[in-house]
Write a structure and sequence with these properties.
Blueprint lengths: L3 E6 L3 H11 L5 E7 L3 H13 L6 E3 L2 H5 L6 E4 L6 H10 L3 E4 L7 H14 L3 E3 L7 H11 L6 E9 L3 H5 L8 H7 L7 H10 L8 E8 L4 H10 L15 E8 L4 E7 L11 E4 L2 E4 L4 E4 L6 E2 L2 E2 L3 E2 L4 H4 L2 H9 L8 H15 L7 H19 L5 E2 L13
Parallel strand pairs: 1-2, 1-4, 2-3, 4-5, 5-6, 7-10
Antiparallel strand pairs: 7-11, 8-9, 8-17, 9-10, 11-12, 12-13, 13-16, 14-15
Helix pairs in contact: 4-5, 5-14
């Protein structure tokens, strides 16, 4: 396939960035259609496409009309969280390669619907978890694959991101986070940290997640922020946000590893994904970008102890091949280049008619953490079983 014809559903901040920075710069991609529920976003996207010299794309506020385009090869779903799986299933039924931006699921039934639609149609669907393509995450994966940390015992990750401004301005900016934080209490955005961990631990490919326990702190961060920024007369100051300020989730895996996930988005803090890998020969910690190796970094002389080695010292030997190539060619796209890489892999699969690297089984398992954590939080942290969306195929690493 020399040219790929794509449609984009959802043209808010993320969708427009995807269009401008990761789709239009590729000479082999033609934007055939654009869709958003708001006319002004569609108009802006049409003008942006035309400004690159491409023909004016089909534009609609109804995603079903876009999916009816026979000339469409692939669909990128970059809209609000709630309809992700509904639209993804419709796109697969329409025979279009499907890419879905991240977010958590609202029900286990939806996750099963995603899997069954793929199995019934044979159409591939990819979760666009860009953090799986992060430079640090890929280097650590390469290290783990080469045995630097030994057998892995535990991994930790989080979405540590001060989103108070984005959430509280959600209504005027037409952003979905406001209504989700108002009504839900869960690990609502698990895949940024879980995706790289799942790949490292071979989840769905020789291993799987068995159970989770989630607990949520009290929810006071947004109220405090609203009072400080807008005052007590603001209507949101009288709203009771359901979302706990810090949600902690512990996952047990079939091979015995444990995973800790933390959602921390409504308190003042620096950004971090809090990535840690603990093995029998050493560990990695993102927050201080350091590596500790047994018999190397734990040597001490009298009262002096070397605690950590810099992760940068390992880049020359363990930089992932994908990132070596990206650095040689020049890093492009948003989020430090990882956006470009995840879309490159999806578009390569479309072009070659091959399976996608982050498939519906990964998507269902990772996204299910949201609705399952919601149930666990509601039951005071009680354990909840995580379904096997592969129906046993994880054992043979299909």
């Amino acid at each position: 396939m020399e040219k790929i014809r794509v449609g984009i559903i959802g043209l808010g901040g993320r969708g427009f960035d995807v269009l401008r920075d990761n789709v239009l710069p590729r000479s082999y991609v033609i934007v055939t259609g654009v869709c958003d529920k708001y006319d002004d976003r569609c108009e802006k996207a049409v003008e942006t496409v035309k400004a690159t010299g491409q023909p004016s794309p089909f534009s609609t506020t109804d995603y079903r009309e876009l999916l009816e385009l026979s000339e469409l090869d692939a669909v990128l779903i970059t809209c609000a969280w709630e309809p992700h799986i509904e639209i993804a299933c419709a796109a697969m039924k329409a025979g279009k390669y499907t890419a879905v931006e991240v977010g958590g699921a609202y029900s286990v039934d939806d996750c099963w619907r995603l899997v069954r639609t793929h199995e019934e149609t044979g159409v591939h669907c990819m979760l666009m978890e860009n953090c799986c393509y992060g430079r640090v995450e890929m280097m650590v994966l390469n290290m783990a694959r080469q045995g630097l940390f030994g057998e892995i015992v535990h991994c930790r990750g989080g979405y540590h991101h001060d989103l108070r401004n984005e959430i509280t301005h959600g209504r005027e900016n037409r952003h979905y986070r406001f209504r989700n934080y108002l009504h839900r209490n869960c690990e609502n955005y698990p895949t940024h940290e879980l995706g790289p961990i799942a790949q490292l631990l071979d989840i769905n490919r020789g291993n799987r997640m068995l159970t989770l326990n989630s607990v949520a702190s009290k929810a006071v961060g947004l109220h405090s922020y609203i009072m400080d920024e807008f005052g007590p007369e603001h209507d949101a100051a009288r709203m009771n946000f359901a979302q706990g300020d810090v949600v902690t989730t512990i996952i047990k895996c079939a091979r015995g590893e444990t995973i800790t996930l933390t959602l921390d988005t409504t308190l003042p803090r620096a950004y971090s994904r809090g990535y840690e890998v603990h093995g029998v020969k050493g560990m990695f910690m993102e927050d201080n970008m350091s590596i500790f190796l047994d018999k190397k970094d734990n040597a001490f002389e009298f009262d002096k102890r070397k605690l950590w080695g810099s992760a940068d010292e390992y880049r020359a030997e363990y930089e992932h091949p994908i990132w070596k190539q990206s650095l040689e060619e020049g890093v492009r796209g948003g989020h430090g280049g990882m956006d470009w890489l995840v879309f490159s892999d999806f578009l390569a699969a479309v072009k070659e008619g091959k399976p996608v690297p982050i498939d519906v089984y990964d998507m269902a398992a990772w996204m299910s953490v949201s609705c399952l954590s919601e149930a666990s939080v509601a039951m005071g942290g009680a354990p909840v079983a995580i379904p096997d969306f592969t129906n046993g195929r994880w054992i043979s690493a299909f």
